[in-house]
Every structure is written in C-alpha cells, then in structure tokens.
Design a protein that fits this description.
single chain, globular, Ester_Hydrolysis_Enzymes, alpha/beta, SGNH_hydro_sf, about 210 residues, Rossmann fold, 6 strands, Arylesterase, six-stranded mixed β-sheet, SGNH_hydro, phosphatidylcholine lysophospholipase activity
Length: about 210
C-alpha cells in the first residue's frame, strides 16, 4: 500500500501536510481517483486559499487495529495534522467497541506524542448489535476526542446519515453497494466536514501569523 500526496504547490510555498488516515471511505473506493474524498477535499481547501497537501492514508478494508499498526509509519511522513476516520470495518465485523476504543486511543496517543493535531471522524452504529454496542461504539469517539483534545466529527458520512435518519432515498448519494458514497456523496461530505478541517489546519498553524 502506498501513500499518495495530491495537489502540487509552488516550490517556495510552505504547504501544510495533512494525512488522511482511514479505510475505503477515505481511500475513494469505487470512484475515479479525482472524485475520491482526498482529492475533493484537497480542491475544496485550496479553493478557499489554504496551502495544503493531503496524503491519502486510506486503506480499503482497514480496521482500527490496522490503523494502530501503521500509525508510526504514517507519522514518519511528518504530517502537520491528521484526519483519523476509522471504525466502519469494525462495525461491519461486529468487533467489540472496547477493542476499537483501545486501537483509536493508541493512534491518538502516538499523534499527540508527535505533536500532530487530529480530527477524529466517527460513524453511528446500527441498532442490530444491540443498544449496549451502539452506546459504547458511538461514545468512544466522543470520549477519545475529549481526552486527546481532538476535533470531533461524530458522523463522517454527515449529509448521507442525515438523509438516512429522515427515511429518504440515498440513491443519489451512494454507489450501488449502498456502503460507499458516489461522487455527489463525496462532494456533500467534503462540504460538511470542510469547516472542521479548516479548524484543524488552524491548529496546525495555517493562519495569518504563519510564515
């Protein structure tokens, strides 16, 4: 698996380096490269005047355990900030939320030790695993974000989740597998999460006082 840095900037520009660690939702599964989450977010941020290069550290099928196993490798790229969007595959496999919490805690501890601010993006749990699982899974994102002073996005899928709770069709936002967003879904996700990513960049030093 390789990391892909997107968005060329002038050689003399001091672009912030943002790593997007996640699974297929981050990696851009089922979409042309330019329509995946990372390049669309890259374009959105650059369109708003941010000098930033995003590394696509999304690996399809990855779990929180996989993320914990490769966090040191990701941090070796010296990112200035990091998005952590893991847990979807833990949900699909019904992994004990206590295990997922421990893995995410490891990731956030390592990022904190490296001085890398984090945006932690979660997902709501379905009810089919029972109320205790749902409570514990969703609470881990809230608790860990507070514990590690990370920016919290409770639902990475944002607008898609909102439509689902309203009982509306998701056919305009999802691929045929009904798991991964299509190009329009990605655009709406980026528009929703973008302001919080801007907050993350501000924590990393993207502001008027930055050299």
């Amino acid at each position: 698996m390789g990391l892909l840095a997107l968005g060329a900037v002038p050689a003399d520009a001091q672009a912030l380096r943002l790593a997007a660690m996640g699974d297929s939702l981050t990696q851009g599964y089922g979409l042309p490269q330019e329509e995946g989450f990372v390049p669309v977010l890259q374009d959105w941020l650059q369109g708003r005047g941010h000098e930033v290069q995003i590394t696509n550290a999304g690996v399809s099928g990855d779990t929180t355990a996989g993320g914990a196993a490769r966090i040191d490798w990701t941090l070796a790229e010296d990112p200035d900030a990091m998005i952590v969007a893991l847990g979807g595959n833990d949900l699909l496999r019904g992994i004990d939320p206590a295990s997922s919490r421990a893995n995410l805690d490891t990731i956030l501890q390592r990022a904190g030790a490296a001085g890398v601010p984090v945006l932690l993006a979660g997902l709501p749990a379905p009810g089919n695993y029972g109320p205790d699982f749902k409570r514990d899974f969703e609470a881990m994102y809230v608790d860990l974000a507070a514990q590690h002073d990370a920016i919290l996005v409770p639902d990475f899928l944002g607008p898609i989740g909102e439509k689902a709770t309203q009982g509306l069709s998701l056919s305009d936002l999802m691929q045929e597998d009904r798991i991964h967003p299509n190009a329009e879904g990605v655009r709406q996700i980026v528009a929703a999460i973008g302001p919080q990513v801007e907050e993350l960049l501000a924590r990393a030093g993207d502001g008027p006082d930055r050299p």
